[in-house]
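Practice set, problem 2.
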Amino acid sequence: MARRTAKVPKGYKPSPEEKFMNPRMREYFRMKLIAWRGEVIDETGETLEKLRSDNPQEADFADRAAVETERAVELRTRDRARKLVSKIDDALIRIQDGSYGYCEETDEPISIKRLEARPVATLSIEAQEQHERYEKTHRDD
């Protein structure tokens, strides 16, 4: 369902006293996610430039190994950034369809404090903790 965007006053912060996921709050989180996405993409571009400009022609094996290790770390960081952009895109879709801010397991609102800290959160703290406990007890060792 299409929604009109609301104006977000400068300095606005969502409050538990206001209606949860009202148009202003949704727009606040939409803007926050878009800004975060831009930062991640900018950082990814810088990483790519660094990887392109680095030319590991080190004569010393130890130096070459250090450069390759650094390169592997950069590539892992880039992969994490790619996954984060995907999560941000998913959150923007949830804002658009009206499901943003609600736990995907319980349909209860996710706390504003949690959404401020982790705008891509899909689980409430309680559901996340339960999920982590389950993973801890059922993982293959």
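Problem 2, part (b): a different protein.
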Amino acid sequence: MLDVATGLGEPALTAAQRVGPTGSVVATDLSPQMLAIARMRAAELGVSHIAFLEADAARLPAEVAPFDAILCRWGITSLPDPAGTLRALRALLTPTGAFATAVWEAGPAGRPLAHLATALADACFDARSLSPSLSPSPSPSASATASEASMQSTLVHLLREAGFTGVHAEVMTIQFAWPSVAACAQYLQDVSPDLRARIAAQPAARQAAYWHALADRLAPYRSANGSVQIPNVTICAVGHR
């Protein structure tokens, strides 16, 4: 199995535990920092039948193929050439292989935390006043539903154009949860190296102001026990070679 744009190692690590030691998983990403964390997590879990490779998803070495299954969670739409990458990935599958992917809904309802954190960094570090767009996004609205339909259609079209058959896609809402605001902030830093570097480049006072403002903005998502739960909207799709 191949996991493209694995980031911190998911879903590669979960898949490796599912297939067991008789199976094998290759996980790729362009970020060496992400892969370093993924390798550390694999070691902590005692998962040895997984190989991490720093590589472009559209230009993977031919010797790593073929695969019975290829996964790409929340990575396809961030690539410079999604259509070309999908064609390249299809060629890496066995004749009966399948490809499964998930993409974020377009707009702030897809990834409220990422939208909020980035917009807040713009406001804090670029000396702009806070704008209404910084308000936490509520549950998907009618306009968000229209966006979902558009993204879903686009994803299905891309998969079919790449040659996949039996294509199916559906919209899902998933909850991201952290035990505290501090844990949520740490997650942001772990998965967003660009944002982390941008914050680290600021004077200590500005960094503190940013995290304080973020905590305030997360208030609508906080429970009485201090935990943070944020709904995200994703579109999942599968296609067969």
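Answer key, part (b): The chain has eight helices and seven strands. The first helix runs from residue 12 to 19.
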